[in-house]
Specification:
- The structure is a homotetramer.
- Chain A is α+β, with helices and mostly antiparallel strands.
- The first copy, chain A, has 16 helices and 27 strands.
- In chain A, the strands form 7 sheets. The first copy, chain A, has a 7-stranded antiparallel beta sheet with strand order 4-3-5-2-12-11-13. In chain A, strands 6-7-9-10-14-15 form a 6-stranded antiparallel beta sheet, with helices on one face. A 5-stranded parallel beta sheet of chain A has the order 20-19-23-24-26, sandwiched between helices.
- In chain A, strand 11 and strand 12 form a beta hairpin.
- The first copy, chain A, starts with a strand and ends in a 17-residue tail after the last helix.
- Chains in contact: A-B, A-C, B-D, C-D.
- Chains A, B, C, D: In the C-terminal section; belongs to the purine/pyrimidine phosphoribosyltransferase family.
- Chains A, B, C, D: Catalyzes the formation of phosphoribosylamine from phosphoribosylpyrophosphate (PRPP) and glutamine.
- Chains A, B, C, D: Its cofactor is [4Fe-4S] cluster; Mg(2+).
């Protein structure tokens, strides 16, 4: 399960934007590890540096120094649509009649093919199959007839889907959030300028202050001289479709998204989990690191249960790991997460995680804990079951890989071998976020999306129990 | 502060040892990230593969497949003495009259130069300036006149310092621990063989069981057919000089060292910390990840104090990070550890860490918490002040860099800007380890070493307050 | 002085085109070492692989195997206009309304900016500042209204400059040569298909036969089934502007270009050189490797002069060479070309090269030969003096760097320190090529170009003697 | 067929030796491309830098600047005995009782195992299985009892085989050549110091003058202050065993070895070839580049035959070349060497090369020339048939791979498909080198070696015609 991108935009009074953009991307690194890029403008021309790899590897000091100008945008990427190669790394830069344009995109258009076809019918040729080039071409075309704000408005009228965009057009930097606010974007003030970014933690990194979230359908234009910003409500906002998984999984705990501090939301989800399906046990422990805040909240309100780390995470287990045999593949979980016997042996254990996707890791963890001597293993999950894929910009898994796509909670419990299993209800999620179900995108836990997804029906040919009901296994 | 090596040795009944050795090294990766190596023997000849870099990068599947034989040793390295280049990576292999020899060494000899000079006077020539080559040459010489056990005994009679060694001589694998047991080494049983390793977590990774620690001065010889082992007490054991920092900092929490589970020791050190210098505050929070277990123990026995994560760690901050200006260098701490405002703002905070070396990070964290709105910041450290360098195999810092080398606790408190500061007493450490002060190496916290360190006196020309007294700042 | 690209196109009956394209690119490697790429089509979709570096480094066996289809094009590149980075490597691929398109381009458009502006005014956005993207967009636009042949005809009506193109549109492969035939392109037959390529040596590599040169203004369309080809004379051919430097310097000696075998042309230029300015000397020697064929021809007709290798070339001197001081920089020529004393000492020497660009190497060689004991050093150059830059696709040097831009032959002789110096006349070049001056592009040796080069006048503000007159130094 | 190493040593008056050593290694690059290294000494300590790869890749400017001192040695390596990895790269450095020692070795010891065993019996342990470590250990042992000259004398009394050594012991640099002078070594003077090197071309590169060859059995000691040198005849010289293949193949044409300029020797061998087995043909052409000087000499004395380049060499064909099928493997020769039709078609051709090892390339070239229309292809080889492997430091091929090991000249002619084939006689080689057969090592062309090669007899179990007789195929 991967977040698919992080974006940033910045305008400073008289300092080069390259280093601050670099630090901001470092703070957003968890949102994309495949490529990193920065585009700046110095009033005369556009500069760009985009490379595959982590932020720290993609830039050298010299590369930063060659990115002249006090305004710029940046991007970290995990591939959405479009293939995973160098040509799809962002920001996406083009030159056209009225100058130069750079785009950073987080999200997923659902009508990209249709818009591309329309543009192609007008003679456009595309070098990639990504959404972002489609937006860039449409903007370039609209900019023939008007200014940037007007052009973005027209493009927003044509594209549908989720997007948080930062755009640089010559020395103008703007940020735009889709009319439903699906992907996060916020505005902050630093000492000598303004910042637009996917997460407020990037503003903290620059010793700045979060001003507010960009509103769904709003465009924020940063003044090129770094002294202020202007808001344009390009699309009327009627309801939201915020992605609740940003809070559950993707975003950093220290970020504030749509007015909620992620860490506090997770603690609260943990408390709700105890309220809805608390179970007596000797010890409650998180799956590190994802379940830690949930477990903290759960333990806080649970009476008498000891909170302890019961699984040691090996931080060196990375992509380069040789697993030649099936035997070894199973052992990999012991390399990655080893039980701390003293907190497990002879005890009943409640294991807290944020979500279950395929179920493989959960199955292995339950087994590992049993082997380490756990009397009982209860799993509690700080979100509802994931029953359907995400079409809005998150790489979860295909429907057939999702353990909850066609299984009841009891069936999942049996599959992973836990003594009991409980998920959190959707209502609890809404409560923790202090909003209504209607203002959340719940596609992955209900199968009902805020947009008509092309081919979604065809994709949905698996049998499964009624969705969103009774998230607690009967075994509890 | 870096642990300087991890070692492993193994003998299996009829499976190639290469993959299990690789997994064991993966489990020991935290003990050395500069190089990794494996030496095996198939009864006819010795095979080796040693490379710079992490375990996952140093080996390919093909490299493992070419390491034939059911017995072998392995090593991960952070450089001790000797320069940091490829030639000093281990295991160190030599061929000599009686066959081939491979050595993996964790520790530091204090009379390496003297032994080298003696060997040189007999005509030996050395390709490196490392300890390990000295041991290898001495062993090779002793093996002219006797068997392996006898040769190791003679070599142990000549070398002084800390060492945990795994040695492969043709198809014999042995493990040896120095007579004071300064560096850890333990013995385990897996399904089809026996394992010697720096930490028991490596045995867990192979689904095995820890049998026991190797005793100070003991040599364990694994049967070449993987069916058993023999113990030889080569040096009489009178007292120990176990490194307590293994428990405080270096070892994995899930390892058992000298009969103590590291995680439990840290929890207990946290509890002792509350007993000795507990302070009322709204919230207690760890410096992640090093202070977490300490903070858990502290919070467990502290009444009414909320345990929370207050600092978010950016796991992507690595070695490749551009910090061109002093300004940016200070900001680096915000990139690495960002406060979670809700758990800090308007609150009194107790921040728990395992140790303070230079004090730079502590200073920055206190400042970061104050900027995030903390009313007060109390620091509690789960170990005594580090007043002197380690000469026994840990890369701490030079004496002049140690903040506690010439400062009282109150002076350190002032330096780092905390409202109060307390370290743990040496007695509390001994209690937590269920041993006496006399059986611990306390050199780094007392300046008195279990061995005469050459040039240590010359090195000690800094004024400092009496050592080991009153670890609590008067401000508390 | 660098050739700027090599192109190839291929259609086979039923074998994958990837390997043959790879071998063809290997044969064209001398025309571009910065990047290499192949685009194929299997009837359903287009595949591409483009990487920086030499052909041998850019492709792996797996990369070739994933390039499905019996038709394809390829490219090796030395950057023309456009920056030297990954995004400008070719073939340039786009998808558009009617399918997919790949282009390989050798040459240089002189009105690229104007065409780009026109397309931008219609809303096109460009990801690079290269010529080739302009051609691709224009083609894509023209393909809205017609077939490929018609679209290329229209595009050719808009673009001006030098070009040899191979184009793949879905499974159709075509080759086009500009109306003046400035850059070479030829057609060949191999066992199971047809090949279009910059040089016939690539056809030899595939054990095929050269059919003929593509005519200026002609388009050759390869049948998708590999069984034949069709010719379309898209622009009427009135006169040629063949680049004579292909014969003098760039092309392989074993290639046939515009009906002339390059090796024979060079031998003939050498013979002409003797006719025009032969000088008595003990020995005649080439500057290796460039002057070898010229010297062979010269020596063949010279009476009594001994032909010998007098300079030894170090083939390992490459790009990674450390030259920290001016002193060392001068020594570099001795590393690269060392005299063989026996053929130089005490002798009068005629040194033959193909051209002089900056004059630095010539100066050093004369000095090196004198130090080795040469009694006299006569230089003979197998081409006229280069007095002006190339705007048609060759990277020669800027005007101010050209030694002949503002010097008479006598002044050059003095500069390089030779006893005598003679260039070849333009008429001799025309004779050797068996054509008229009017059918050659002589821009670099006359300063008069077959096209109006924008900004060429401004560029030409250096004083120089009358061009094209008296190529022989008075000293002879 | 590969030369196996190049060595250099240097002492300068007051300039750092690092850069001159680097340039010298660049000039010796053809003698070894696997690794490169330099060891220097500044009067206080030894510095070294050894890396895998070409000279230009192995050193950076910074690496050179860190090699302090005015004296040093260097090495380029193609692996002799010992495995091909980083640990066997040279110079080989050791520290021992009396200081530090670095060795660069070209050659091959035939009793290395025996000497190693003797040292091992005294307790020595070896990190590699290379000759050079054996020499280093023996020297270190001998240096216990005496000075460097005395120690080298003793070591020379124990080792047997071929060697040209440069040795640095603290700030003393010496060069030694084995008593038979098998491998080359010479002495030169540069502006500010003295140089010992495998080939005089390296002295030219430094603008120096060759003084003379080091004599067989002689040691030259360079004064540490760069102002002179002293000669010690350590072993009496009775006869020589110079390697004639240095002149035929390995050495640079511009080097002088044992008083003969290599280029002139090759020209003379070509002339002798015409005398012994000249054949009428329309054209004589070299296999580039190895046969060029031979062909030049041949053509010079041949009446009426045209000398021409008939094969074009593709200089980009390197190690990274994909050849998936047998078909492609055969084609590789066309990629590497393409015929120039005009010089081949309809003509009788004499193709000149320096030697035939396996015969594969010769077979392909004959075929390629026939396909290009040659009426007849006569091969003439500038050396006698290679009938046995080299045990003295050259990597030729195993006996079973040598086409001439068990075939008569006529059988070889048939195998490669030439119309006629002739080798040069051994007497002609001796004449060209102005020496007697007795002073040459002719092992590879007679099977009789100047030393008793262990296991050579066992190796020689192939039937072959009488050796050294009648090198001309009856077909001529």
């Amino acid at each position: 399960m991967h977040e698919k991108c992080g974006v940033v935009g910045m305008s400073l009074t008289d300092r080069s934007a390259a280093h601050p953009l670099y630090y901001a991307l470092y703070a957003l690194q968890h949102r994309g590890q495949e490529s990193a890029g920065i585009v700046t403008h110095d009033g005369f021309q556009q500069y760009d540096h985009v490379e595959m790899g982590l932020v720290g590897d993609a830039f050298t000091e010299q590369a930063l120094e060659e990115l002249h100008g006090t305004v710029g945008i940046g991007h970290v990427r995990y591939p959405t649509s479009g293939s995973v190669d160098a040509c799809c790394a962002q920001p996406f830069s083009v030159s056209f009649k009225s100058g130069s344009l750079g785009l950073s995109h987080n999200g997923n258009l659902i009508n990209a093919d249709a818009v591309r076809d329309e543009l192609a019918a007008q003679g456009h040729a595309f070098t990639s199959d990504g959404d972002t080039e489609v937006i860039a071409h449409d903007l370039a075309r609209n900019l023939l007839d008007g200014g940037l704000i007007q052009a973005v408005r027209r493009t927003m009228g044509r594209i549908h889907g989720s997007y948080a965009l930062t755009i640089i057009h010559d020395d103008a930097v703007v940020g735009v959030r889709d009319p439903d606010g699906n992907r996060p974007l916020c505005l902050g003030k630093i000492d000598d300028g303004y910042v637009l970014t996917s997460e407020s933690a990037a503003i903290d990194t620059l010793d700045g202050e979060l001003i507010r979230d960009v509103r769904p359908g709003e465009l924020i234009r940063l003044d090129p001289d770094g002294t202020g910003y202007t808001s344009y409500q390009l699309e009327e906002h009627t309801h939201s479709a915020h992605c609740f998984f940003e809070h559950v999984y993707f975003a950093r705990p220290d970020s504030v998204i749509d007015d909620n501090l992620v860490y506090e939301v997770r603690r609260e989800l943990g408390r709700q989990l105890w309220e809805e399906s608390g179970v007596e046990s000797d010890v409650v422990m998180p799956v590190p690191d994802s379940g830690r805040a949930f477990a903290g909240g759960y333990a806080e309100v649970a009476d008498g249960v000891e909170f302890a780390e019961g699984l040691m995470k090996n931080r060196y287990v990375g992509r380069t790991f040789i697993m030649p045999t099936q035997d070894a593949r199973e052992r990999a979980v012991r390399l990655k997460l080893n039980p701390i016997k003293s907190t497990v042996e002879g005890k009943t254990v409640t294991l807290i995680d944020d979500s279950i996707v395929r179920g493989t890791t959960s199955t292995q963890l339950v087994e590992v804990l049993r082997e380490a001597g756990a009397e009982a293993v209860h799993m509690r999950i700080g979100a509802p079951p994931i029953v359907a894929p995400c079409y809005m910009g998150i790489d979860m898994a295909s429907r057939s890989e999702l353990i909850a796509a066609d299984r009841s909670v009891e069936e999942i419990r049996e599959e992973i071998g836990a003594d009991s299993l409980a998920y959190l209800s959707i209502d609890a999620v809404a409560r923790a976020l202090d909003t209504s179900r209607e203002d959340l995108c719940l596609g992955c836990v209900t199968g009902e999306y805020p947009y008509d997804i092309p081919d979604e029906a065809a994709d949905r040919d698996v049998t499964r129990p009624a969705i969103g009901e009774d998230p607690v296994s009967p075994a509890d």
